[in-house]
Amino acid sequence: MNDVIRNLNPKLVWKYFCQISQIPHNSGKEAALAKAVTQWATDAGCTVDTDKLGNLLIQIAATPGHESAPSVALQAHLDMVCEKDTATVFDFDTDPLQLRIVDGWVMATDTTLGADNGIGLAMGLALMEDSECIHGPLELLCTLDEETGLNGALRLAQGWMKSGIMINTDTEDEGLFIIGCAGGADTDLYLPVAREPFDGNIFRLSVKGLKGGHSGMEINQNLGNAIHHLCNALEGLQAEADVRLIEIRGGDKHNAIPREAEAIFATDVSLPPLALSVKGLEVIMRRCLTKQEQGATLTISDANVSKTPMSAADSKRVVQFLRAIPHGVKTMSIDIPNLVETSTNLANVRTRENEVVVLTSSRSSNSELLNEVLCQINAVGQLACAKVDTHTGYAPWEPDFNSKLIEPAKQLFLEMFQKEPAFNVIHAGLEGGIIKAKYPGLDVISFGPNIESPHSPSERVEIQSVENIYRFLCKFLERIQIG
């Protein structure tokens, strides 16, 4: 199937995307892809520079005759979110992605696709070879470790790039141009727990089948959080029986809404009455879910675990603690219609011997409101006697509605597609804002093709949209560099 995808239009873009998909490039493990990109660029006659972290800066020569045009930077990140269902057998450290076409969209088989931001990277690489695209000098900036905290951009040196304009390729809606984004910060909470012997039956309670998705772009869709629904069910069972937690885990990446979660616990109740209670709790759970998530399940089964359970008090405290941590939209913008201003994602929970560790990820386009939600999470942690570690975050990218890129983008998009584009701020972190802060005067805009359900195994990119946006990119470069 990869050969079929390689022959889609534009061929150079899909060629590079297929090559990218065959090289594992999880966040923090992009070395193999960085090496390959360096080789591809060298083979294409480009020069490549690498900073101390491993970010790449590729110099792409101008179309002959346009060497004196102002330089423009294109920017994409090398890493991808690696998500799969627990039942899927796949090793993101070694296995190539299995691409397929479904109804005009490219997907991976049972895993994330990495179109975020692999398709943007592929567009930049295609320009190294595309003789039909007329442009001035280009810089292709390839950053590391975006998905786990925008670390490549945060550690980017000042003065490395020479361009006064930068196009970020990490937008996921055709016709949407991003000129600002939210800031964000993560919080780790460490809740101490005591364990004590308890003679009972051991069971596994699982939530599966939720949609998940991007914790910024899709937080406003009221998608179910598997950790919260698991704790709701556990609290229901604890109201009926002595339920002693052994382990609780769920979620994965800080920027993915948890799709699955499970708890292993001991109790003196047998399976039949518990299963009956779980069936009732599943009905309640589905009443709280959107129509698209009605296939989600809450199940209970025997578990073969010999670990000592937590105390009765701590078993309840863990559940109450997780229920108290906020998740979802906190405020909407009063200045920009339909824009989520502030949100937080209960992203991950895992259990160690003597503590339960929780990760939350918060965002806001308002620095004061971001601090407010971080303080709320800290307060919940302090009340539960948890250790709280709030990470250093990144500031919002405030929109510049006077950008000299807006009018050319608007006019060209209208000419090419006969429809008005939108210029907006998004409720997600984009590297453009961080890089802009490091390069005063840098004019930044972000756009890209239609990508749905990033950060989940349902991720897909629209074939026609890729062609549309690549054609637009080429024409846009010609317009802003050459006139």
Q: What does this protein structure show overall?
A:
This protein folds into two domains: 2-182 and 396-481, Aminopeptidase (3-Layer(aba) Sandwich); 185-390, Alpha-Beta Plaits (2-Layer Sandwich), CATH 3.30.70.360. The protein is 30% helix and 26% strand. The chain contains twelve helices and 23 strands. Helix 2 (11-21) crosses helix 4 (115-126), helix 6 crosses helix 7 and helix 6 (226-238) runs antiparallel to helix 8. The longest helix is centred in the last third of the chain and has 19 residues, at 463-481. The model has no long low-confidence stretch (mean pLDDT 95).
Outline of the structure:
With 483 residues, the chain is α+β, with helices and mostly antiparallel strands.
Considering the chains and any ligands shown, give keywords for the structure.
483 residues; Alpha-Beta Plaits; 30% helix; alpha+beta; six-stranded mixed beta sheet
